[in-house]
Amino acid sequence: MSADVQLVQLEYLAALAKERHFGRAAAACHVSQPTLSVAIRKLEQELGVPLVQRGRRFEDFTAEGARVLTWAQRILAERDELLADVERMRGGLTMTARIAAIPTSIPASPLLSAQLLGRHPSASVRVEAMSSREIARRLADFEIDAGLTYLDDETPPGCRQTPLYRERYVLLAPRDSPALTDTAVSWAAAAALPLCALTPEMRNRRIINAHMAAAGVDFAPVVEADTVGAIYAHLTSSKFATIASHAWLHAFGVPDGMAVCPMTEHSDGPTVGVITLTREPESPVSSAVHRAAVESGMSAALEAGLRRWMAKK
Known about the structure:
By secondary structure, this protein is of the alpha/beta class. The chain has twelve helices and twelve strands.
């Protein structure tokens, strides 16, 4: 079979996969909808297989289309990495590092970005919050360059891993809360408070649930949110409390009228780090992110921040 496949056709296909709508995909590619539709039909003709299920609108990809899409995303990623490698050889990176981060790590992500941009001032960083499972999917589909996530048994196989810090848990509660009178707060005592927590699909929430279960108590937060920022917004009422990662203190600190106290530790907390796909040659962007992770000093910075806030208790 001989097919004249063009990169622009693959870009249109990838955009359609992301937008799930012909009109929005065309707008994302800065072309008209007929232009995009014709290009995808021509790609189908070139390859000799149907790629898209069409009704009155986009429905889904065919089995062949899903397979071709995987190749398209890989080819486009390789194209981008080739250009990035050339930029590196010419003296610097100007590409955008696409980093997906679990919500609990977002407050610490500026430490990684600062190190990366300090070494590559012409580059840029885009950080998106998502669940650990979504990070794994987006990484496999070449939609992101790196993930900032937990390094545990849920980490997808075939990934390079660079640890950043071990997560420690603290109670943030109103300063007059009786739970803050000891040097450490038991999980049972915390469960009795009106708690805010991340939503159940988040890995951090599943970890907290496991701690509560080990303490023999039911965990029933009164507020659930999918971002740390939303949790902190509720803490400003000085009524609610939360079990926070110590990384949250780096960006948000301790709200007025509240205090922080460590949770009882039954074991070492989970490790948070950077993951990328293991490939040869390695993507220049992925390599730069890993080097920034090693040089960020994130663990020491977060521990120092926790000590400062504890000293103000």
